[in-house]
Structure formats: C-alpha cells, structure tokens
Amino acid sequence: MLVDQGNKVAEQELDLAPLDEMLDEFAEEHGALIPIMQRTQGIYGYLPQAALRRISERTGAPLSQLYGVATFYAQFSLKPKGRHTVDLCDGTACHVRGMPQIVTALENDLGVKAGDTTEDGRVTLQVVFCLGSCALAPVAVIDGQIVGRLSPQKAVQLVRKLD
Amino acid sequence: MSEPIYRADVLVCAGTSCESSGARSVLAALTEELAKTGLDQEVRIIETGCRGFCSMGPVMIIYPEGVFYCQVKADDVPEIVEETLLKGRIVQRLVFTETESQMTVPYYEDIPFYQKQQRVTLHNCGVIDPTNIDEYIARGGYEALGKALGEMSPQQVIDEVKTSGLRGRGGAGFLTGLKWEFTAKAAGNPKYVVCNADEGDPGAFMDRSLIEGDPHTLLEGMAICGYAVGASDGYVYCRAEYPLAIKHLKIAIEQAEAYGLLGDNVFGTDFSFHVHIKEGAGAFVCGEETALLASIEGRRGEPRPRPPFPAVSGLWAKPTNLNNVKSYANVPQIILRGAEWFSKIGAERSPGTAIFALTGKVLHTGLIEVPMGITLREIIYDIGGGVEGGKKFKAVQTGGPLGGCLPEEQLDLKVDFDSLRQAGAVMGSGGMIVVDEDTCMVEFSKYFLTFATAESCGKCVPCRMGGRRMLELLTKITEGKGTLEDIDEIDSIAAGMAAGSLCSLGQLTPGPILSTLRYFRDEFVAHVTEGRCPAKQCTALVQYYVNPETCKGCGICARNCPVNVIEGGRRQIHIINQDGCIKCGTCLEVCPFDSILKVSGETVEVPTELIPIGTWAK
Ligand SMILES: Cc1cc2nc3c(=O)[nH]c(=O)nc-3n(C[C@H](O)[C@H](O)[C@H](O)COP(=O)(O)O)c2cc1C
Ligand code: FES
Fold first, then answer.
1. Is the CB of B214 under 6 A from ligand 1?
2. Which of B189, B340, B407, B501 lies most in the core, judged by the most C-beta atoms within 10 Å?
C-alpha cells in the first residue's frame, strides 16, 4: 500500500485538475516520468496515492514502476510534509563541523527522528547532503532560507520559533 | 539609447554561498545608494558567479583599481559608495586581513588565497554576469565553436582534444579525446552528448559554481563535442538541489539559441545542437554514468555492468558521450588556444588545472583552481591558510565518499590523478575536506561508509552485504565493543567488495576505510584495546564530568542540560549523573568557568554526594 490510512480521507477530495493539465504538457515526451513526478510533488507537496494512480492511467506506466521510482529517489515523499521544513546538511564539511550534535539536539527537542514530521504537523525534520554553502558550515535550510554557522542551541531556538 | 560609459564596475558575488551570507541585501542596498547619489550612470553593478573565497563572503571587487572587500553587509554600502566610489579611498575595515601578520591586503591581485591559484576552467567565473551572453562573448565566448565549425573537421577537433591530454574531471581521469573518438566511431544513430552535473559528493560544489558562474562555457564545450561526435542533442543532468545553476543554464540556452549559437543551424551551418536539462531527484548513485542514463530515461537509477560502455550503447541504447561539467568546460579554450598551450599547464600526465571545493577545518574555505602537480601542503597552508583555530592537522580527504584520507606525512604529495591514487586517495570530482585533531578517524570512515551503503542499489551481494557488515563492525568499534579481529575482518570484507562488486560504487565504497586503516590504524586499535577515542568524539567512549576543583556552583550547566541529569544547588559542586547523560556537550559549551571535563579512556574522581564548593579533597 502506498500511503497509510490517515491520509486516505483527505485524498478522496484531491483536486486532480492541475495534475491533468500538467500531464497534457508531457503527452509526447520520452522518459518524462521523473519530471512528471517532480511537478506533481510541486503541486501537492508530496505524492498522493490518487495522483500516482492518475499518472499511471495516463502514462501507461504501472503503479509498481511509479512506486519503484518514488522510493528510489530521496526527493520524493509519499507522506505529506509538515507546515515547516527543516533540512539539516550532513555533508562532509557540515559533518566535521558538528552537525551530528545539532541533529541529536533537534530530534530530542521535537521528539521525532530525522525524516519524520511532528505529530501536530508543525515541522518536518530532514537530513540532506551538501547544500553548497560549506563555507558557512554547519548549515540548515529552514523553509527555504539558508542559515549557517549553527550550533545546537541556535538551531533549537530557531526551530522553536516556527509556529 | 546607448549604454552609458561607466567609470567603475562593482562586481558582487551572488553565488550560492555569498547569497546565503547576504549578497542579495548588499546588491539591493548598492542599487539604492547609487541611485540616491546619482552615480548610477557612472558606476555599473555586475552580479557575478562564485569568486571562490566563500568564507569571506559576501565579497565585492571594485574595478578599475581592483579593491577587494570581504564580508560586506548592506549597512557598509553607504560608506563604500561615499569613500571608495566618490573619493577613491579604501575602507580599511572591509579589507582582507591576514590572520598571522595582521597585514591588510586591499587589492584582489595581492590576496594570498589567490596567489597559487591558476584560473583556466574558471576564467570567467566571478568575472562576468552569467545571465548576460554578451559578456561571455566579449571574453572570447563561442569563438572556439565558430572555429571548430568553420575551420576544423570533426576528426581534427577530436585530435586536438586528444593531443591536449585532457583527462576527464569526473573522477576516473579517462582521456576525454579518446572517449569522444569512441563515440564518434560507434555505429548507431542518433548519438547523444550528456553532461554529468549530478555532483552527489557531500561537501562538493565545483560543478555547481561553474554552471552558476559561467554556464555558456559548458554549453559551448558540449556543442563542440556534439559536432565532433556527430550528435545534435545534448542533455545536462543536474541535481534538483541546484536551482540557481538550473536557472542560469536555462537563461543561457535561451540566449544562445536567440543568437544562433545553439539550436538549429548553428553559425548558419548545417550543424544543429539542442540542449535539454534533466533534473536529478536525489540519488548519489545517479552520478555513476550508467545509472545517470537510466535516470534520464525515467527509470530507477541503477547502474548496470559495463561493457557495453555508453560510447557504444548509452542513452536509449544509442552511442552517447558522457563527461563531467569541468571536462566540457575545458574544451573551448583548448580549441581556441591549442592543445599545446593546454598540455603545458599542470603536471605531465595530468595536464591542466584541478578545481577543488576546499572545506572542513581550514581557515579559508572556498572554491579553488590550482595547476595539477601542486602539493597538498601548498593547497592547505598557502591557499587555505592552514588549520583553523590553532588546532593540529590530522587528515585531508579527497574524492568524496568513494575517495580516501591522507595523513600529515603525505602533505608533500603532488596533486594529480596518478599520485593520489597511488597514495590511496583519488582525485574524485573535487571535494577536499581538511580535518583536525577533533575528528575521530573511525567515526569519519563510518560516516562515508554510511553514505555509500545507503546508496547501494542492492543488486549484487558484495556491495549490499559487504557494506552493511562493515558498517556493523565499525559501529561496534565506535561503541567500544570491537575487537582486534573485527579490524582484520573489515580488511578482508573491503578487499572482497573491491574485487567482487558489480559497479564502481561497490568497488570504491571500501576506499575511505582502507586508506584510513592504512594511515590511522592506531586510532582503531585505541578504540578496541583501550576503550579510548583519541579525538574524544565517539560518544559511547566519552564522559563528561564537572571539575570539582573549579566548579563555582553557579548552576548554569544544570539549567541548560536538556535531560536534567546535572544535580547541585547554589554554591554546591555539581555532579553529572553518568547513567542519564546523553553526551550532548551542552554543559561544556555553556559553563562560564571552563569547569567541564571531557575525557575518554580515563576516569575522573568526583564527589559522590553534593558538597559545598571549595571543600573537595580526593
Ligand atoms: C557512485 C558513483 C558516483 C559518481 N558521481 C559522479 C558525479 O557526481 N559527477 C561526475 O562527473 N562523475 C561521477 N562519477 C563518475 C562517472 O561515472 C563518469 O565516470 C564521469 O562522469 C565521466 O566523466 P569524465 O570522463 O568527464 O570524467 C561517479 C561514479 C560513481 C561510481
Ligand atoms: S557540506 Fe553542508 S553545505 Fe556543503
């Protein structure tokens, strides 16, 4: 099964119109599965089951293949994200400058493991690799904004401020 | 209306790193200030790509004088405009200061960071506005393509690249010209040109900076390749995490097509070349060429055995030439200035320059370009300014998660493809990370192994099981539960993986750990025989204590402890309850009296019950 029960209810009302419109653009294109899924995630924030079914119908790619692609690439998520996303860079430069302690501090403070979303849907905590701002290591991206030269305390303070 | 004649150019780096240090607000302030003072008809602002000196960002260079300002903030802008642009004076506090001598260096050309560098591949990066094709053309852009199309046969182009000795910058160092020849000679139509801009190494941003700062060089190189191998379509496979690079590339393609330098009938000839961008979706293994091609085709990015090589059977099973960004970016200059010119730069068997993302515990981090054959010591000390914070150098890691670590004894090693490989490291695609005495080499190799094994596609046993098993053993060692036999077993699994894995991912995964074992075996041994982590990094082997002799009983540690395991009242010697301590190090960070001891492999005697400060006797 692609998604857990909790998301089912919301998914029934999923508006597939923007998806269909986007799929029209790709009607002719060769090997466009990944871009299609990227755009779908752009529309819904994640890959809802209903959307994957529609993509399968329209492109002829079996659901199993879509699932294979979705789970292979780190970018895709089958679960909805929280209101805020915190991406912690554990690339080598950030790693040697203390990211592991920051990850632990935030995991403790939020009560979730990296990769998960808090129960109240407030924050999704993720670990990523190299954001290309190694000179500012350790670095995080909080809701799209790069913040550098973090410490465990500074990170916890910043994340607590997200409403 | 014609462009005004400017008397000064202000170059502001707007690469990813400077942007995250605040380059946008500097640019906004500058635009506003120039308008306010009426200088906007005399002074031009140019947003450039990366200048390399990322740790000093945002950086700004003012020409014609070449004044170099670092860590510029929006608030500094009025003073820069007033002093430098109006009165021609230097704002001393924004000038680069050498740490040791405290000397100030106001001009770009004198900055020590740049002294030993040689900008060939990056010659436009940080100098031109990457979103303006005219600036690229003004610096000789697209002349090489014109020359190739107008004066050279495809075979002559291939011969020129072959003679230059250019080796692939994606890591393995395969001869670029030879690869082109294979693709050109392969049977099958159509053919494709693919650029590997996946740059999955954690801690690397060379390709990204190049595309952000000078996208046309890549496009021109790819078009020349297309002409040489007989392809009319090119793909750039770029990480989706690089939005700015993708944006600049898209703009560049549009502009080049509008000028007839890409697209149908390039330069009015019957050669056509269309470039498409494919965004990766986050999988390190997609940097491997066969996996990358699978990913462009929309499949899971799983590598397949070679041969057949992509040159024979690549994208959609057609002959495909695949190179790294930097390999293509070197080509226009080789065509324009000649193979001989290029082959004289750098080292004999590795001509040209190497681009590294120099990061970690080094004073000046950033993007550097150096002639091949330079020593590691010159890079780390002369360019990087040495280890940060007066700490002791321990190792330098090159080649990313499939590379290797080199110790102090190897610092005089010359940097080229072959010397690095012999020493147990690899060139890789260009990450260079310096670590100091605070990094545990066991943990460090575990980090790379964790990264690489998570990317194993699971198809072959040596890679799937070998990586996992080594990781278990390393985890055991970092937890102080390892034995000497475990170290030997790592050795033998590593050898098996290197010999028996299906693709280079599995074959190269043991690299970091093998080189670490070769040079830092004593650290592994200390973990298993003494239960000691020399760098005091492995949490299971580290303890924190309140120093009973210097504790002032202020309570700051107890208040900040996230798990509340520090006991003690006012003016009492505080005690850390070892059972509950999660070893986060917060107490050490917050103690105003340096009274927290961090130890490994030794015990500290402390009071067993709460007593007033100053009353402790062993
Ligand atoms: C696991 C793995 C990851 C790789 N990642 C990259 C990468 O990020 N960028 C790159 O250019 N080459 C990467 N390579 C090397 C490519 O397979 C290929 O050799 C290279 O792109 C060829 O280009 P070149 O001849 O210009 O060096 C990787 C190889 C492996 C095995
Ligand atoms: S390693 Fe974190 S930004 Fe590069």
1. no
2. B501
pLDDT of residue A10: 55
Q: Say yes or no: CB of residue A130 within 6 Å of ligand 2.
A: yes
DSSP assignment of A90-143 equals -SHHHHHTTHHHHHHHHHHHHTS-TT-B-TTS-EEEEEES--S-GGG-S-EEET
* CA separation, residue B556 to residues A109, B501, B560, B576, B581 (Å): 19, 53, 6, 13, 16
B524: which 2 tokens?
């592994």
Q: Give chain B's residues under pLDDT 70.
A: 1-3
> What is the SS3 assignment for B554?
coil
Residue of A82, A80, A85, A81 lying closest to A159 (CA atoms)? A85
Q: B353-436 belongs to which CATH class?
A: alpha beta
The C-alpha atoms of residue B366 and residue B374 are separated, in whole angstroms, by 17
Q: Which residues of A touch B586 (CB under 8 A)?
A: 105, 152-153
Of the candidates B20, B361, B585, the beta carbon closest to that of A133 is on: B20
CATH 3.30.70.20 residue window(s) in chain B = 541-600
How many angstroms away from the CA of A64 is the closest CA of chain B? 12
* DSSP code of residue B382: I
DSSP notation for B157-195: HHHHHHHHT-B-TTTT--BHHHHHHHHHHS--SS-EEEE
Residue located nearest, by CA, to atom 5 of ligand 1? B287
CATH of B8-111, one of 1.10.10.10, 3.40.50.300, 3.40.30.10, 3.100.10.10: 3.40.30.10
Q: Note the ipTM here.
A: 0.81
- State the amino acid at position B183 in one-letter form: T
Please give the distance of CA B459 from its chain centroid, rounded to a whole number.
29
Pick the CATH number of B133-343 from 3.40.50.11540, 3.30.40.10, 3.20.20.240, 3.40.30.10: 3.40.50.11540
Query: Which uninterrupted H or E stretch holds B467?
Result: helix B461-478
The rounded Å distance from CA B250 to ligand 1 centre is 23
Distance from CA of B238 to the nearest CA of A (A): 12
The domain spans of chain A are 7-72, 84-160
Give the pLDDT of residue B540.
92
> Tens digit of pLDDT for each residue in B430-467?
889 999 999 999 999 999 999 888 888 788 899 999 99
Q: Which ligand is nearest to the CA of A136?
A: 2
CA distance readout (Å), B123 to B111, B119, B131:
17, 5, 16
Query: What are the residue ranges of CATH 3.40.30.10 in chain B?
Result: 8-111
CA distance B185 to B62: 50
Mutate which of A97, A127, A139, A146 for ligand 2? The one with the most ligand atoms within 8 Å of its CB, which is: A139
- pLDDT tens digits for range A61-80: 899 999 989 988 888 889 88
Burial class (CB in 10 A: 0-12, 13-18, 19+), B5: exposed
Q: A133 to chain B: nearest residue by CA?
A: B17
- CATH code at B441-530: 1.20.1440.230
Contacts 24+ apart (CB under 8 A), B171-177: B171/B324, B171/B399, B171/B402, B171/B426, B171/B427, B171/B428, B171/B429, B173/B350, B173/B417, B173/B427, B176/B323, B176/B327, B176/B330, B176/B331
What pLDDT score was predicted for residue A5? 44
- Whether B360 sits inside 8 A of A108 (CB atoms) is no
A142 pLDDT above the threshold of 60: yes
For residue B57, the chain A residues in CB contact (below 8 A) are 135
Topology of domain B541-600, CATH? Alpha-Beta Plaits (3.30.70)
- What pLDDT does residue B318 have? 97
What is the fold, at CATH topology level, of the domain defined by A84-160? Glutaredoxin (3.40.30)
